[in-house]
């Protein structure tokens, strides 16, 4: 039996959660023994006594915040997985919670206890796994929040992962299409990893010819090659005990891959033409728009280097898979662009935002930034105009009809409900096909819209149970207060 500690000052919630978890059985006997506490001080005392496997910890407690006691709780019973619960979405707190060592961060009210059950089971599974594996040292460090904008489920997940990554010094590999924010994420991880300022040194491995890249990375001694008139330290040296960011690592030649592998294995390197061994103290973060597993299969990337780099892998979602983030990104980028080009374009009419939400964004956030910069420069006043945006593509006709998540919808010819265009038009560009998750989210939003938020009817149409619908609404962050 696993011991579960639930900490909340809401007595009725505490009681109902206790009953819920006590009712869960495993192989015919109760799965959990549940203990409760209403204050932080009491929680710490009880935790020390019962050594819980999982702690469900509310953020707002009468004496201290849940966040404040995570570290103390972990030092008392380091093995416990802590799930922090709050009533609001807050990126800063999410990162701080994950960094302090929380296992997960969830929001209440819980629309469906199944979601909570899943998190608790997963927490226990991970605890089992990590008991077998080596433990990672959790550094504590205050850090500042970077400029990441986005509240879509995939971005929230990413923010959680950043919190965990920042707590370790492990090598990180960031995958993502061009312009998805790989460098930004690398900088945020860096900023969150240290208390005091440390160097962040980036280098684009695809932009420099091989021989030059080697001396850029590792430096060179005087006279190492023609033109090497003085000693020059490389990026690895300049990064000191901070971060070296190897951008577009997938484009590195096999010859340099072999050198890099040796450096990562031995944690030492020499300048080109030199003999002195220099210690590698920097943390390595690498990024690529290529799928490295495919590069490995086709022999263009060394398998052993890939294994070294992928200790922690982050996958950045393309912008078209998180279109809900476009409004907040537009707002954020406009502020930055106005400052840069000395303008004050602050108004984005709904039809212009709609236009922006429907563009394909193959170049992701960077393309959005470029498109907005052009439109800001061309704007005659303080209003952003559709005329200055790229035209919509024919597969996304501007028929002024209904939209789900920026995708136009139209009738399916059976006199029934409208369908998103992606389900009925011929798609010849693979990048325009939505992921299964995206399609599922759109169908749920569409059905909720058609039934005007009636969950019973939505379940009936989609052929799913109420708990499944609740779980998916929460997973995809679908607004339930008004028609979507
Ligand atoms: N989630 C985000 N929130 C705010 N700004 C973002 C976000 N993602 C990307 N950006 C901005 O978009 C621009 C491109 O991001 P960045 O250079 O990090 O992308 P990248 O994936 O490294 O691109 P490339 O592969 O082309 O080098 C930057 O100005 C960055 O600040």
TrEMBL record:
> In the record, which positions carry 4-aspartylphosphate?
58
Q: Does the keyword Transmembrane helix apply?
A: no
A single GO BP annotation from the record?
A: regulation of DNA-templated transcription
**What Pfam family is a match for this entry?**
AAA_lid_14
Q: Which InterPro entries match?
A: AAA+_ATPase, AAA_lid_NorR, CheY-like_superfamily, Homeodomain-like_sf, HTH_Fis, P-loop_NTPase, Sig_transdc_resp-reg_receiver, Sigma_54_int
Domain of life, source organism: Bacteria
* Iron listed as a keyword: no
Q: Which keywords does this Swiss-Prot/TrEMBL entry list?
A: Activator, ATP-binding, Cytoplasm, DNA-binding, Nitrogen fixation, Nucleotide-binding, Phosphoprotein, Repressor, Transcription, Transcription regulation, Two-component regulatory system
Domain Response regulatory, chain residue ranges per copy: 3-123
According to the entry, every stretch annotated as the Sigma-54 factor interaction domain falls at 148-377
The protein in question is named: DNA-binding transcriptional regulator NtrC
């Amino acid at each position: 039996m696993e011991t579960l500690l639930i900490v909340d000052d809401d007595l009725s919630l505490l009681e109902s959660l206790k009953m819920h978890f006590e009712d869960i059985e495993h192989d015919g006997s109760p799965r959990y023994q549940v203990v409760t506490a209403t204050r932080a001080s009491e929680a710490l005392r009880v935790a020390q006594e019962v050594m819980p496997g999982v702690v469900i910890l509310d953020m707002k407690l009468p004496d201290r915040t849940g966040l404040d006691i995570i570290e103390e709780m972990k030092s008392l019973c380091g093995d416990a997985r802590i799930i922090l619960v709050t009533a609001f979405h807050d990126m800063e707190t999410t990162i701080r919670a994950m960094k302090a060592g929380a296992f997960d961060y969830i929001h209440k009210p819980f629309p469906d206890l199944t979601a909570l059950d899943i998190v608790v089971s997963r927490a226990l599974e991970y605890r089992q796994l990590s008991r077998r594996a080596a433990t990672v040292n959790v550094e504590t460090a205050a850090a500042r929040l970077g400029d990441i904008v986005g509240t879509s489920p995939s971005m929230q997940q990413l923010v959680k992962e950043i919190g965990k990554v920042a707590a370790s010094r492990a090598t990180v590999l960031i995958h993502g299409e061009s312009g998805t924010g790989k460098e930004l994420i690398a900088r945020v991880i860096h900023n969150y990893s240290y208390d005091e300022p440390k160097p962040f040194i980036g280098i684009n491995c695809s932009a420099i010819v091989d021989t030059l890249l080697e001396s850029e990375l590792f430096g060179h001694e005087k006279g190492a090659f023609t033109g090497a008139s003085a000693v020059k330290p490389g990026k690895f040296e300049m990064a000191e005990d901070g971060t070296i960011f190897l951008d577009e690592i997938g484009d590195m030649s096999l010859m340099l891959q072999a050198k890099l592998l040796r450096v990562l294995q031995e944690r030492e390197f020499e300048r080109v033409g030199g003999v002195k061994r220099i210690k590698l103290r920097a943390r390595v973060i690498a990024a690529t728009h290529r799928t490295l597993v495919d590069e490995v299969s086709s022999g263009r990337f060394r398998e052993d280097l890939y294994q070294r780099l992928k200790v922690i892998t982050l996958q950045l979602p393309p912008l078209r898979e998180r279109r809900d983030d476009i409004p907040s990104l537009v707002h954020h980028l406009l502020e930055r662009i106005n400052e840069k080009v000395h303008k004050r374009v602050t108004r984005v009419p709904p039809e212009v935002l709609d236009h922006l939400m429907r563009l394909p964004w193959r170049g992701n956030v960077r393309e959005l930034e470029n498109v907005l910069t052009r439109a800001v420069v061309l704007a005659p006043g303080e209003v952003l105009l559709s005329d200055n945006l790229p035209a919509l593509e024919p597969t996304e006709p501007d028929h002024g009809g209904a939209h789900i998540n920026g995708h136009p919808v139209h009738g399916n010819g059976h006199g029934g409900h409208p369908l998103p265009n992606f389900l009925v038009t011929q798609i010849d560009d693979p990048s325009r096909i939505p992921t299964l998750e995206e399609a599922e989210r759109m169908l749920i939003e569409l059905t909720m819209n058609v039934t005007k938020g009636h969950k019973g009817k939505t379940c009936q149409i989609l052929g799913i149970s109420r708990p499944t619908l609740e779980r998916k609404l929460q997973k995809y962050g679908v607004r339930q207060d008004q028609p979507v």
